[in-house]
UniProtKB/TrEMBL annotation, chains A, B, C, D, E:
Residues 1-25 are annotated as: Disordered. Mediates influx of magnesium ions. The gene is corA. Belongs to the CorA metal ion transporter (MIT) (TC 1.A.35) family. It is a multi-pass membrane protein. InterPro entries: CorA_cytoplasmic_dom, CorA_TM1_TM2, Mg/Co-transport_prot_CorA, MgTranspt_CorA/ZnTranspt_ZntB. Keywords: Cell membrane, Ion transport, Magnesium, Membrane, Transmembrane, Transmembrane helix, Transport. The chain crosses the membrane at residues 306-327, 347-367. One of its GO terms (molecular function) is magnesium ion binding. NCBIfam families: corA. Pfam families: CorA. PANTHER family: CORA FAMILY METAL ION TRANSPORTER (EUROFUNG) (PTHR46494:SF1). It is found in: Cell membrane; Membrane. This is Magnesium transport protein CorA.
């Protein structure tokens, strides 16, 4: 439990995260479309160029400039230009121009927070996907991938490690990556992005299992807040996963020349994963909704039990208390034989006690008949 | 907080706004279709003509009359006729006739409150969109845009500033606006209208964040009313945004000659924004629904806690009170040894106190076993 | 308020209206299809024939018989046969035969309560629409319209005034009605039927606004019943409006020869109105659902407040009452120094009062810390 | 009311009905498909053959055997073989073979509880529909209809009277039945099956009206159970009606040679009825859901009122009771002037009463200000 | 009941089952696609080969190796290779290579927990389905079926008995299995898998019936937990059944050469069963949701009743108790004629008792008028 709450606390406050992620960074209302704007908080860009020959030969060139790129495109059969950090608007713009990307696509690279989407241009395919690099939603960043059979160009917001396995496979001379065209490399990157959502959803599943055990044991108020919080996070995740699945489906269905049939077959597998992710999130949400309802039901059942006890105790003792009060009245028996003669009876007190016992037993019998005592 | 409520108070009362906006202004039931009716509250019209040459030359002519317009159409490659205020039914009608607009389209211009829509006529495209010019829904007005590659004619209800950025770009000789045909100008206007919804939705997001913090701190009754109010406003907004997205999608999909492929590519971007707006509103609505539920749950949890305390206190003290009352009865011990002999016992009082203590401790033990004391 | 309830009371009881409207009047189960059955409560039919020439000439012939009709069809370019009241089954049947209507269509004319629909026959188009002639749903009646480019034949259940504006425009020699074929006349009638729903929905909107103000001021039980009642009425209305919209959409989309492109363009406007009606009803339903929830929430919040007060008062005074009862016991101090010695202390009474004060203040401090006093 | 409960009691217990109806009778898991299994509770079969000539001539032959059928098919232009009771598996199988029905279709005839469906075979059309022969769901049985233009073969589970009107029309020499091919006869049977649902739904509507009146008068616990029960029944009915409508729609849309255009036109009417049934059931379900909610709301409103009274009475009298207890304490005034000197004041008692009155009036004023007294 | 809870207890804990079933076993994030990974808990594989000649001749060879398989494919017209247990990754891989299965398909065989799906490859059809071999969801395992007209290859996780009936029909020389191609054998296996879900759903239906009877008799807290648990299980089942139905529908619709029209006709029957299963699960879920609501409603109705009693008793006896306390006060009548003169009245006590009786009767009359006594 302690571990769990830590995980939760480490997450930045929802309010802030929201501003960071949900609200698309836009040029001012009415600005010319395609205007490139800089984000003051953006990371400084790092350009890494990976060149791959069909024979397993490859080079890694860090901090390349534009002329290096132009040279590499001529020399190598496929290249991967990997740009992390979007602070330098002009650099992104010039790379875009060099590869012939549409101005609006270049704008989308910079205005992070775009919905997942695929655009088929004449010369290349443009894919925008949200990427997690750690096990929580707050690490989400936008990856923009431009590719055709000759090159892959990726832009991401921050240095992150989701692409590391692909890099390692390149360094290890992974056969498939070298034998196929650059579109297969793009597939491998997209696959890595999609699969990075599994750990997050598995974490959520485990948290939900924990909470469920707690709710069944004892329904407490802060569980409610946590469950609502978590359900909203899952909902938010689904909003990301739906268009992501659609974007990948568009890649699978298209007959663009930039994607070989073979790569599309592999993308089918990624599409299966995306659907699996959606179903896991759907299950999480369902379970949470059910748990919230169950929590409310159990809390309400408990209150009913409490009210039941209150009623039984009050209903028995309030009349008895009245009787005791009655015989505690100070009407003067000396003045008149009508004034509380029972107080001076020989068996007055035992009779009174007996009467009280009869009332109490009668009420208990009534409650038993009603079935209200069965619940204690 | 104070600031927030001010924002809310400044908005006109819902009832009045509704009448103003939801109810389409119609000709009397059964009137001949296409009947143009004047709205007594409408603004007097102001006609402004902007002429744009391909070489960046342009003119702004205010308070033009019909003959000016005819002349300008002959002389300039593209013109923008900007009409604000719909009080002069005849003027609107004559402009419509001059440009060859369909009678029903002219009727739609005047009967504000139309749903967002696109109609492809032989000679031009007719678009109706609701426009915000300030950050609340009450500032909504209808903009009717007629355009083809040669002209753009816009009608709006009140003078407003959403188009100002476009006007400035014209005055600044914005390259794209002069190089392209008038359909691009229409796109720029539509884009400005759509983007004007972002500030409203961002305001709502922030308000919701504020309310969320409040609800988590302390659930109060007036938060409920505010959240219901806000949820309805968001719902209303969605009703506007759905057909707006459809209208823009129709513009993107059409193969009308009045829209160049290039402009349609730009409209795709506007379409993305419209979808983004819808998702933001969807998120707002979801969050509000979740918050209302959470509010109810927390309030109910709090009542449970209160009832719990009531039960514990009553269940302990009502029986004790009965015992005290019992020994406060006035049965006469002098009359009979059966009458309350315990009152005269040497250790009667301490025994009675001890008995009460035993009852109280027994009940507390019972509550502890039930787990009801854990909640205090 | 008084006015409002009057409006509501004037409406016939729901139970009766339901029987009248929802349950289709059918031939006995298993009867031969196309069997024409008479409704004993039906109005006696009135046949009115309006003949229209292209040059604005027209005649109105009341109480025509079949031979008149045949003559008029030969003589005039377009005619409108207007039949109000369906008591004479044979007459309807003979008119149907004279114009060549399908037996099942003739059955639909008589078995009122049909769903709105359009059927395209070889020779004509058959439209069934529900018509309101006053501002409440109980005035609903079925209108059956048969038309092609030469004639319009309408059957309705009762004499009503929705078509009056069209009649007036004919009498006034309305240009459009005379210049175009009879399908335009059919359009004008359909438009009149659709527009007659606006006043009803506007009335409901206003009622809802009134109720909303009441709910926000004070949530009362009878508001609940009214809101449920109204929501059901709106839902019922939607059931009428959905197929109505579909029927009109079918008229707009069809390429039947009986409808000119020009008339279809006009029907697009009617379709817009139908969609508008649906959205208004959707908004009403949403608002009512929200108000019902808000009502429940406010009532529940109020109960929480009441229970809170009960708890505070009981929790403070029941222990104090116990203490008072304790010192009201009659243990005999004369018998033993252990029996209630505090009663004979010099400062016994003030100390007891002080103790009570301490208990009370302690509990108040506890409640204040819990934040329960903040709500009063 | 007594009448109503009788109607309800007459229905078999839900549990049993469910087993009878919802669970398809299947061959053991893994058995060869097309295995025909006998139901031990099935009715013994009765075979009736109706032969129809085009000239109105017809014969009714009861208890026919297979050779009779073969002869009749040669001799007459159309025949109807009517089999009630499915106990004789072999007989059904042999009839199926004689007419050339697919083995799986024959299996469907015997394994009752199939979903409504239509299958278009090369030689005939196969329709499965659930039939009611009395006004409650428990009388549901499966009717299997095989037909083409020459014959109709029907299998049903029990002798029932839904087809009686059709039989009577044959006996009366009904013109349409004799003039048309056998597919029209199939239509007449399907129409009879569909129309038999109207009385059930009308009964439910009336019951709901009754319950509604009761709920509005006084919300009781057993109404809840009844409404839930009824809503489930209606839901169950909808599960039957949805695929039934789809099956009929498939018959209307198909261009199979076994159905003439004329018959399809008539089936459109049946389709309208099926949609009408669905809408009636939808209305019933809606109304029930609304009523259940209203019931809960009213019960909750009533509890609020009760708790309100409890609070008012307790809050007034518990403090007063404490004061009375206070002055009933036995501190000894003789020991000290500090001990309860007020008891010996000249106006002590009236002052005390006055104080109590002030407290009570103060609380009443507080409640009035809060608006809590307005509800009594 | 005891029996029932046993059934429930035998099921493994939800938490564990979930980990086992819902979470797809995946290669590490970023691993090369098509990587085959071993599951340490997997069963050791058993290979059984069944060869079938068209003339009813067949052989069963256990523990075959790859060379046997290659021989059998040459010799026999159709073979079924049945592999249970997936521990030997290499073996699965080599079988896959021998038959020419796609690497990703081979990966799917090993990474159990795939969604039900169908893939049409050039050379064969690949089907993944979840299989139950006992009457609870925890026995779910993945079956992978590769087939064309010559062979069927099945992989499953554990030895199970769902295929036993098919094996028996082979041993018994079942005609249909020998006369048709291997695709019919594949159909028979798929049919067995689908039908194995019926017992589970029938068990759930019966459990729900039992719970319903209990809920109607007495609403208890643990029923709630059980119903939520069961509803989630049913929901989970639906998630399996939806894609299963879609997969079978794809087999029915495809025009792949590997499936004969005849087999597709049989698969239509399996499709019907899958739809039936979905409807049964839908009914179960609906019933459970209705029951949970009913449970809550009844519990709430019961609490209302309890609170009602509490209110009546408290409201009657608290004022009476106050009166008794009043006349128990010790104001000194000797000091002043104003101090409690009523105590010394001749009829003081009877008058006081009478007054109390009047108050009690008055309150009872008030409750009766309010209708609150009618509920006891």
């Amino acid at each position: 439990m302690a571990e769990l709450s830590e995980t939760i606390d480490k997450k930045p406050r929802r309010g802030r995260r929201k501003k960071r992620k949900d609200v698309i960074r836009r040029a001012p209302v009415g600005a010319a479309p395609g205007t490139l704007i800089a984000d003051p908080d953006a990371h400084p860009p790092e350009l890494t160029l990976r060149t791959l020959g069909d024979d397993g030969q490859h080079e890694v060139i860090r901090n390349v400039d534009l002329s290096d790129i132009v040279g590499a495109r001529r020399e190598w059969s496929k290249i991967w230009l990997d740009c992390t950090g979007l602070a330098n608007v002009e650099l992104v713009d010039r790379i875009g121009e060099a590869f012939g990307f549409h101005p609006l696509a270049r704008e989308d690279v910079l205005n992070v927070g775009q919905r997942p989407k695929v655009e088929f241009h004449e010369d290349h395919v443009f894919v925008v996907l949200p990427m997690l690099d750690r096990r929580h939603e707050a690490s989400r960043e936008q990856v923009s991938i431009f590719f055709n059979r000759n090159y892959v160009v990726t832009f991401q917001e921050r240095p992150g490690d989701v692409f590391d396995p692909v890099r390692k496979r390149i360094d290890a001379g992974g056969k498939r990556l070298f034998e196929r065209d650059a579109d297969y490399l793009a597939y491998a990157l997209i696959d890595a992005i999609v699969d990075a959502y599994f750990p997050l959803l598995e974490d959520r599943s485990e948290e939900i299992d924990l909470i469920e055990d707690e709710v069944l044991e004892y329904a407490e108020q802060d569980q409610l807040t946590r469950m609502y919080e978590m359900r909203r996070e899952v909902r938010q995740l689904q909003r990301t996963l739906w268009p992501m699945r659609d974007a990948i489906a568009a890649l699978v269905r298209t007959d663009s020349d930039h994607l070989s049939d073979d790569t599309q077959r592999f993308l089918t597998d990624t599409q299966d994963h995306a659907i699996q992710l959606l179903e896991m999130s759907e299950t999480s949400r369902d379970t949470l909704t059910g748990l919230i309802e169950l929590h409310m039901s159990l809390a309400s059942a408990r209150t009913n039990e409490v009210v039941n006890l209150l009623t039984i105790v009050s209903t028995i003792f309030i009349p008895l208390g009245f009787l005791a009060g009655l015989w505690g009245m100070n009407f003067n028996p000396d003045v008149s034989p009508w004034n509380m003669p029972e107080l001076s009876l020989y068996f007055g007190y035992p009779t009174a006690l007996g009467l009280m016992l009869v009332v109490a037993l009668g009420l208990i019998w009534y409650f038993r008949r009603k079935g209200w005592l069965g619940r204690d």
